[in-house]
Amino acid sequence: xxxxxxxxxxxxxxxxxxxxxxxxxxxxxxxxxxxxxxxxxxxxxxxxxxxxxxxxxxxxxxxxxxxxxxxxxxxxxxxxxxxxxxxxxxxxxxxxxxxxxxxxxxxxxxxxxxxxxxxxxxxxxxxxxxxxxxxxxxxxxxxxxxxxxxxxxxxxxxxxxxxxxxxxxxxxxxxxxxxxxxxxxxxxxxxxxxxxxxxxxxxxxxxxxxxxxxxxxxxxxxxxxxxxxxxxxxxxxxxxxxxxxxxxxxxxxxxxxxxxxxxxxxxxxxxxxxxxxxxxxxxxxxxxxxxxxxxxxxxxxxxxxxxxxxxxxxxxxxxxxxxxxxxxxxxxxxxxxxxxxxxxxxxxxxxxxxxxxxxxxxxxxxxxxxxxxxxxxxxxxxxxxxxxxxxxxxxxxxxxxxxxxxxxxxxxxxxxxxxxxxxx
Length: 424
Fold this sequence. Notes:
mainly beta, five-stranded antiparallel beta sheet, 4 helices, 42% strand, globular
């Protein structure tokens, strides 16, 4: 099967063959896309005529070792992340000395690359790449602040270096940037809040982390590796809603921006395998109750476990966050659900929830529109599963946004952008 599948209440307006992307945001007549792989970093697309989108600016990463796959805009300012490309893979190189030692203890006095690769379950070329990465090191991680007064000609204002892998997903407003990054002395990403009001003198305001992350201060993690870390935190009023991967969700009070305080917490791991990607409250009440949506990311899916899906929480009382329901897409609902080396489950929803319809990017499941008017019984209201573009084995719907015109912008991780209208 190669055709696109679409429900009657959606209309496909246009498709644009651009490099695969990690995030898309729309402001006015322009869409901003952060791309997955160097050399291309960020694209600006004129969507004033949604049936004829046009790329009007392309920014290159400027390094073969970094990607800038996330982007945010607020008025005349844009922030793009800078993060090590292939970061988790390259960091595995730190395991090589231990593997060599184990092989020597097993009687192999001088292990060669083939034996090391076999022990690690990778290729000989992978071992070469890991060693090169270790020797090269990495010091490019951080974020860039841009002037987009003219979206067709973004101008770099500042480049803030952080540490380690660098910056992943983040949030921003006209005053502050809420950055998820590694920092020296911590294990895994933490939150660092920066004052960006003066673009030439960006200053750190405060930090937030989970107990156990600050190893430089003597804290001891109760987990192994990088499983508990900040994915990103989004500001809603004086709260930050933080997804913390294998540690679930946190709500952070930033009434005093210099002293973030955790006021809510809920963790459904480890019995749910897929990590928490995003958490965000709806803007309206449902039956007098405050509702939040969470999503997990399909990430190294383990057979026999549910695919990543959508959560609905009652967050009326932040001291007692309660799951109300979940929504899942069956493998039977996409012809590409079991495509080898492709993800199927959920990844993200649009990060502003004004009504009771939620637009979700579902990797090989395409886009799903979920009706949450009854928070106890979310139901699918529409679907769009794009056909794989040339060279792709399956759609990998990665991120999306909606705008005031009712348009939906669906970005694929490997290749392509689709623009649709929804009649719901």
